[in-house]
Automatic annotation (TrEMBL):
GO terms for cellular component: membrane. It comes from the Bacteria. This is Heme biosynthesis protein. The keyword Repressor does not apply.
Length: 369
């Protein structure tokens, strides 16, 4: 821009000076319709210079004012974006620290960037669920855009109302390229809706896609077996494929023990007793046992403990089995030896049962302390 102005000025000066150099005053006449302008070249050049200078000053002034406006506008929006970013970051950190109140404080009264709106609703819904505010959580989840609803499927499951995402999850799970997460989420939907027949048909796909961990398989089968009539538990287990039986084994034994059918799984428990690597699993099964009958197992446990008197898993197994047989004094004596800070929390209920039933209420009370 400056170069153009300098060139124009040079031309104007040259036009003004050239008549003087040849001894002529120079004359300019401009006529347009009924308007006529006339004067010397020097006068016109001077007028041109004044106009050019005025235009240049005006241009610089407008540019300066625009820069002031742009900078002010930029700073305003920059501060606004910083506040939005700070709000979402504070919400995420509050979630990490399981602080639902701080999460709500950070996000409820603060806006976030457009691309974070659905995340904001999901975070607030999670905070509401942590406070058992189910209706509020559902209202927030409904505000999430349709394309992101499946990303909040776990939250919908937690509300107990997964109808919004069931259809989409089913379609995704049945697709050939379904991901492990999609398969797992659909399995959880089937469990929540207690669609056990559909779950039975879906289990082979979960297994072939390796969609669940061993812990998740255990949770799934525990829910599945607990929902079955007690008289059908054995049949339901036997109907499973060999590969699925491996995943269901511990859950099946635990549910059978929980409903008091120890005598029907006693042979399996005796086999576990003979394998040292399964002693911990044996204790876990008997830990959830209801009153039942497994006298051979108890006798075998006592015989084995004579050889391994400090085997913690077998001591805990014997104590729990003694409770199931109503031998609370025996159970209390064994718990006196077997309980330690590492296992007392896991076997709290069984230990309290033995102490309370054997007239040792103080020991039962001490377990709470």
């Amino acid at each position: 821009m400056i170069r153009i102005i300098l060139v124009i000025l040079a031309i104007a000066i040259l036009l003004a000076v050239s008549p003087l150099l040849i001894g002529e005053v120079g004359y300019v006449l401009i006529s347009f319709n009924h308007t006529t302008l006339e004067g010397s070249i020097v006068a016109f050049c001077a007028a041109f210079l004044v106009i050019a200078l005025g235009l240049y000053v005006t241009y610089k002034l407008i540019r300066y004012v625009w820069s002031l406006y742009s900078n002010t506008r930029h700073r305003f929006f920059a501060r606004s974006e910083e506040r939005k970013q700070a709000a979402i970051e504070q919400g995420i950190w509050s979630l990490i620290n399981s602080d639902s109140e701080q999460l709500e404080l950070a996000l409820e009264n603060n806006s976030v960037a457009d691309n974070w709106h659905d995340v904001r609703y999901a975070l607030l819904a999670k905070a509401a669920l942590q406070k058992s505010e189910i209706n509020k959580a559902i209202t927030l989840l409904e505000k999430i855009s349709a394309e992101n609803q499946l990303k909040a499927a776990k939250l919908w499951l937690a509300t107990g109302d997964c109808s919004t995402v069931t259809g989409d999850l089913k379609a995704l799970a049945e697709a050939k390229k379904a991901t492990a997460l999609e398969l797992k989420m659909y399995a959880e939907v089937l469990v929540q809706q207690q669609k056990w027949t559909a779950l039975e048909q879906f289990m082979p796909r979960l297994l072939s896609k390796q969609a669940l961990t061993d812990t998740q398989w255990s949770s799934l089968f525990t829910a599945y077996f607990m929902a079955q009539p007690h008289s059908q538990l054995i049949d339901k287990y036997q109907q499973l494929s060999k590969s699925l039986k491996v995943k269901a084994h511990m859950a099946y034994l635990s549910v059978m023990a929980k409903v008091g059918r120890l005598n029907e799984i006693e042979l399996t428990l005796l086999k576990m007793l003979k394998k040292s690597e399964q002693h911990n699993d044996l204790a876990k099964v008997l830990n959830v046992s209801a009153p039942g009958d497994a006298l051979k197992l108890q006798a075998s446990l006592q015989d084995t403990l004579k050889k391994e008197p400090d085997n913690q898993d077998l001591l805990l197994s014997l104590a729990c089995l003694a409770n199931a047989h109503g031998e609370y004094e025996l159970a209390a004596r064994v718990f006196d030896k077997a309980l330690n800070p590492e296992n007392s929390k896991d076997y709290l209920a069984q230990a309290q049962l033995s102490y309370s039933k054997s007239a040792q209420p103080q020991k039962a009370l001490d377990l709470y302390l």
